[in-house]
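Design a sequence for this backbone.
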């Protein structure tokens, strides 16, 4: 039995989720993947490779299936290819995101260290090259892919990206998949 099956079972669902809660979960999960893309510059090939390494090819078989899962985020611009994200697919994307975060932990940890240093020195994150590149990339990806761009000015998106960066560090840890899953459930149920 692949290790991913054991981990999938660890991501329990204590109660069923209604459509608005699932939509919130899809949105949050897509933002995590967006943040991961922005800091690591990894794309769909890396996500597909992670799915293969985790034995999740049945859920994320190819670029089209991955694209359709990402398009399940109701805030995405494109309406084509949207499908309902089921819990099993959400669990798989959690495992993929955390697997990639673990692989890129050194890069994430370095960026978080720089972020903490900017806070200590009362500087803006955009004054540090690694953080400026990350936040610029995050804002660019967000504006390119999401519908509600006019609602969020770049400064607000940059702040959200910095918060997400610290979250990615937690998701890269040994129990990151459980932490991310719990976070997704908590945010979905509290909104």
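Sequence:
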């Amino acid at each position: 039995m692949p290790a991913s099956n054991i981990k999938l079972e660890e991501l329990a669902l204590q109660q069923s989720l209604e459509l608005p809660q699932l939509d919130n979960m899809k949105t949050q999960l897509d933002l995590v993947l967006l943040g991961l893309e922005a800091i690591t510059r990894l794309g769909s090939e890396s996500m597909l490779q992670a799915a293969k390494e985790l034995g999740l090819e049945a859920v994320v078989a190819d670029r089209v299936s991955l694209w359709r899962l990402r398009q399940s985020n109701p805030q995405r611009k494109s309406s084509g290819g949207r499908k309902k994200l089921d819990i099993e697919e959400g669990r798989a994307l959690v495992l993929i995101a955390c697997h990639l975060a673990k692989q890129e932990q050194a890069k994430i940890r370095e960026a978080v260290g720089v972020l903490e240093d900017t806070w200590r020195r009362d500087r803006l994150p955009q004054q540090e090259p690694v953080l400026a590149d990350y936040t610029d990339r995050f804002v660019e990806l967000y504006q390119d892919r999401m519908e509600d761009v006019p609602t969020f000015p770049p400064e607000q998106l940059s702040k959200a990206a910095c918060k997400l960066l610290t979250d990615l560090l937690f998701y890269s840890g040994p129990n990151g998949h459980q932490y991310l899953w719990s976070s997704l459930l908590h945010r979905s149920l509290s909104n």
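DSSP finds nine helices and no strands in the chain.
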